[in-house]
Amino acid sequence: MAAKGSHRASNGRRATGGDHTTDKNRTTGGNRTTDGRRRSGEHRYAGAHRHSSDSRAYSHGGHVSRRSARAAVRQARTQRLAALAVVVACALAALTLVIAPFAAPTLMRGRDTTTGTGSPNPPTVTHATLERTAAPELSPGGIVIGVNGSPTTIMLKGEEYVEGGAHAIDPDDGVLTAAIQTSGTVDADTAGDYTVTYSVRNSKGNLATATRTVRVVDSMETQNGGIPVLMYHYVYDDATPPADLNNNYIAASALEQQLRYLTDNGFYYPSWHEVRAFIDGTHSLPKRSVVLTFDDGEPGFMSVGGALLARYQVPATSFIIANDGNAPQRMKDYATPYLEYQSHSYAMHQAGGNVGHGGRISAMTKQEIIDDLKQSAAVTGALDALAYPFGDTTPDAIEAVREAGVLCAFTTQYGWANIGDDPMVLDRVRIQGTGSLETFIGAIQ
Ligand SMILES: [Zn+2]
């Protein structure tokens, strides 16, 4: 099962390269079947996290085909007297000539897809325990699809696999998350790598896929007690600080320092499903687990911050104020596989209440809150996590959020999210824009 998944994993996002490869293997036959099998084998064991070496395997495969073609021609020349051999060799050579032009564009398209998106260069950082997947690619038709949380899920053998899901958005269709099909099997009782594949089609029929490597390990150092869920707001380019600069803003250079620290030190980014299971006390997380959240879907964060997250391949959640008229377009414009959109409510991010910071949630009935969250989910395509507007909660609000099916809901109260906490009222670690890297490091461990 892992084999099947890995194969699709490496090919899927390259303009349905997987299908081409399969066809090629099937049609070439003879010598090239052997090559084809070897290529498939490489995919089987390479896994999604070795994307770049897969690319090389592909190029290599192409050369092998052409070399085989020349060998076949030579073979044909030396065996002219053997009529049967001539027929066989000519058939092989002809087949190669027919196939080569198709094979080449397939490879080309794969490379074009990678470079054509303007995907940022991966930073040259060492990653202590986790290998990272490829830089973001644009799928056919411009669909952006990404897994939720770390692309390599780490789980302890014998525990239940917690499926983290994926998110997808299309420039024309908007969010496609609900339409994502998930396939693959994880044997949680046997250590090893497994692949889960997520695929979705847009209304034009373009297919986009993303893959998750699930690594079942015999043992690991685990995160004890709780997990830091970081709360950020706005991000600005150092060269153009905002007029109203305050502690809710973080400079791109400061955020980049933090992201580099996280990647250099092998931090793990669980999905919301994993966080919930962890809080419930039913699931272990690797030591050095952390979650990054950014409130409000602010343009500076979406553009500058989103690009940095993609560059460092750090998954994060953007809590979107769904009734912001610009939100749907911004979500499409700045979509990356590393950014998932969750709820900061639909129309509750405004004054009108008399609890806490005065958000209107405290003046709403339970049903009104549930309806608001449903409207929010229609915009973001997900309701796994919620940031209460201004952090305000009431007993009705908490019950509404629970009934709406939210997995994890956060206030602005400072602290870690701890095992045994009510998952509807979780604390977060506010990151002050002017804080030092040492303060950041101290807050997450
Ligand atoms: Zn907010």
Describe this structure in words.
The chain has 445 residues and is an alpha/beta fold. It folds into 2 domains: 2-116; 220-443, Glycoside hydrolase/deacetylase (TIM Barrel). The protein has 12 helices and 18 strands. It has helices at 2-12, 17-28, 30-46, 51-78, 83-116, 252-264, 272-279, 299-312, 327-333, 366-380, 395-403, 437-443; strands at 144-147, 152-156, 166-170, 174-175, 181-183, 192-201, 207-217, 226-227, 229-232, 234-236, 249-251, 291-295, 316-320, 339-343, 385-387, 408-414, 417-418, 426-430. The protein has a 7-stranded parallel beta sheet. Strands 2-7-6-5 form a 4-stranded mixed beta sheet, covered by helices on one side. Strands 1-3-4 form a 3-stranded antiparallel beta sheet, covered by helices on one side. The longest helix has 34 residues, at 83-116. The two termini are 37 Å apart. The model is unreliable at 1-136 (pLDDT under 50). Bound molecules: zinc ion. Residues 295-296, 344, 349, 389 line the site of zinc ion (ZN).
Indicate the structural class. alpha/beta
Order of strands in the sheet with the most strands? 14-13-12-9-18-16-15
Low-confidence stretches: 1-136
What global shape is seen?
A: globular
In CATH, the homologous superfamily of the largest domain goes by the name Glycoside hydrolase/deacetylase
Helix % is 25-40%
- Our count of helices gives 12
Q: Overall mean pLDDT score?
A: 77
Q: What's the quaternary structure here?
A: single chain
- Reported by name, the CATH topology of the largest domain is TIM Barrel
- Sheet with the most strands, sense and barrel status: 7 strands, parallel
**How many separate structural domains?**
2
**Strand/helix succession:** HHHHHEEEEEEEEEEEHHEHEHEHEHEEEH
Alpha-carbon distance between the termini?
37 Å
The assigned CATH architecture of the largest domain is: Alpha-Beta Barrel
How many strands appear in the DSSP assignment? 18
Domain Pesticidal crystal protein Cry22Aa Ig-like: 145-216
Region (Disordered): 1-71
Biased composition (Basic residues): 1-11
Transmembrane segments: 81-104
